[in-house]
Amino acid sequence: MRWGFSPPKITCGLGLAAISYVAVDYLRHLSPAWHERLQPALWSILALIAISRVPFYKHWSSEFRAAIPFVASMLFMLACFLLEALSVRLVTAVLGLDWHSETPPLPDTGQWLLLSLNEKLPGPLVEILRARIIGLHHFLMLFMMLAFSVLFDSVEAPGLGLGARYMFTMAIGRLLRAITFVSTILPSARPWCAAARFRVPAYPHHWAQKYYVPYASDADAIRQIINRDIAYADTGEYHGDYHPDWGSMNFLVNFLRPTPAEGASWFSLLKRAGGGCNDLLYSGHMLVAVLTAMAWTEAYGGFSSAFIWLLVMHSAQREIRERHHYTVDCIVAIYVGILLWKMTGFIWPAKDSMRSRRLAKLERIQGRLIQAAKDSDMDEVRELLKEVELRSQESQHKGHSRYLWLFSCATIFLALTIVLLAFTWTSDG
């Protein structure tokens, strides 16, 4: 007989914890004094409850097996963030600050719709839509709460496996996003933003002066370049850019276009790139929000997943309302996030899929198991159950192998992209 204490399984507390976190954090806008009291208390309570569950956690072996994919995902995500920051600075600098301040925003019917609704909806409802209820850090924290809920058996273990899938999917999404917005430069919905945040030169890069500026607004020039398929205009004398000594990273000068006031370190320029200013199709904030909602829906479900999706929709309309993004950026981010999460499902099985595989194996050996039980052959029963467990672990290892293979391919693709861009820009002068 085995003696000991096993805490009860908690299946509904995660949703209440998520709602409490969002509500308490919103008190910073309603009552800062109460926020200062309640937020530390909430985090302390959640931390103590989580720590109390650690001694009873039964899935440490699966967590250790998921550690390598988790670390690999983190490194890949950081590399994609670095490429994204480089691309953000590039699309901001290549046309110069004058273009950003003089080019009008694109017409956005989603923004028009929200403005018209402000005139028709009740005032309190409009104020709710305007309220800053949810932000990027909230969605990241909600996912952290989801991953740590493996301690309560609310989500199928390992938590590091779920984290690996989340970061890997986000990295792929960020990589695709950088490729998308760097391919066609769109004007910002906030024309003053670039001049307020960046110190890039006011005039365009020589690439833009040669291939874009002479053909930007003249219809006859556009028709001629289409017919000739060659840049024919005489650009005249080009104003040279500032070229700091960055050693082996000098090739980045053409991408980042530093000024004397900020050219001491290429890495400091990338850190200040932030979310950029001109429109970056698609929205990175919305990608994070959708991935959090997809992870929550698949791993946990229930009423709280509907609550998360409502927060996603609220965040989307606020991005559009406050003109951080065009409507198309939010719409594309939603369906890209959903599709990417579905495509990376092989990294970590969906909820209950491991249980389904075990049940399928048990059905196949049902006859042998019943016969062994009738014969009171407990050794045979143990062997059969061990075989079921080993088959489940083999399936999980195969998933990790596929993940590592895709991670290697994505890393090679990322490296080749950087090398190709560096060669193209440096060879052009």
From TrEMBL:
GO terms for molecular function: ceramide cholinephosphotransferase activity; sphingomyelin synthase activity. One of its GO terms (biological process) is ceramide biosynthetic process. The keyword Cell division does not apply. It is found in: Membrane. Belongs to the sphingomyelin synthase family. Signal peptide: none annotated. Residues 276-343 form the Sphingomyelin synthase-like domain. The keyword Mitochondrion does not apply. It holds the Pfam family PAP2_C. It is a multi-pass membrane protein. It comes from Populus trichocarpa. Keywords: Lipid metabolism, Membrane, Sphingolipid metabolism, Transferase, Transmembrane, Transmembrane helix. The chain crosses the membrane at residues 66-86, 133-152, 164-189, 287-312, 332-350, 403-425. InterPro entries: Sphingomyelin_synth-like (IPR045221), Sphingomyelin_synth-like_dom (IPR025749). This is Sphingomyelin synthase-like domain-containing protein. One of its GO terms (cellular component) is Golgi membrane.
